Amino acid sequence: LLGSCEKEEEIENTRWVLVWSDEFDTPTPDNRPDPSKWTYEKGASGYGNQELQNYTDRVENASYTTHKGLGCLKITALNDNYDGVAYSSARIKTEGLFEQRYGRFEARLKLPYGPGLWPAFWMLGANYATDVWPKCGEIDIMEQLNHDGIVYQTIHSHYKNDLGFTKPVPTKTVPYNKGQFNIFGIERTPEA
Q1: 3-state secondary structure of 5
Q2: Which of 23, 33, 25 has the alpha carbon at shortest distance from 56?
Q3: CA distance 164 to 106
Q4: Does residue 8 carry a pLDDT above 60?
Q5: Which are the catalytic amino acids?
Q6: What is the SS3 assignment for 161?
Q7: Could you please report the per-residue DSSP string of 83-98?
Q8: Comparing 75-79, 91-95, 160-164, which segment has the lowest mean pLDDT?
Q9: Can you give the pLDDT at residue 50?
Q10: Three-state DSSP class for residue 160
Q11: Single pTM value for the model
């Protein structure tokens, strides 16, 4: 929350300079996300969340499509027993291709809903290989937990407690229109 009207005007008058984007309006020859911008998290390790899917780089799980004439990325979860794992999906990332610490980060997303789905748009500290999670930090710009159908924004960081786990601070419930595209974003500066 902003502390004064002057601060609100200052933020609204900030001139952002676009440094990276993918509008998903130019399909690649194989109809998968642009490899100059995206790479994949692959495997079925559960990722600390007991996830049941095998993340793949297959076009069946991540592909270009159009919606009402606009290009977009479609991530599809399948019950297809891919590589001996009951479910498959995609998890794309910019690791090794682009990183940015401060600025405005946003995505226009249409969220699925259903048991077992957990769509998210998030940032992870680029130093996660040496300062493992949660010490590297994580900002969930949008995380929809389908057991409650609520979208959250959460900051995870190292918090010294008996187990050395993360402490989400703060968690914010985000209003959104179900079944429609919504813009989810944050503005991050060295101060806030």
Answers
A1: helix
A2: 33
A3: 30
A4: no
A5: 138, 143
A6: coil
A7: TTBSEEE--EE-TTT-
A8: 160-164
A9: 80
A10: coil
A11: 0.83
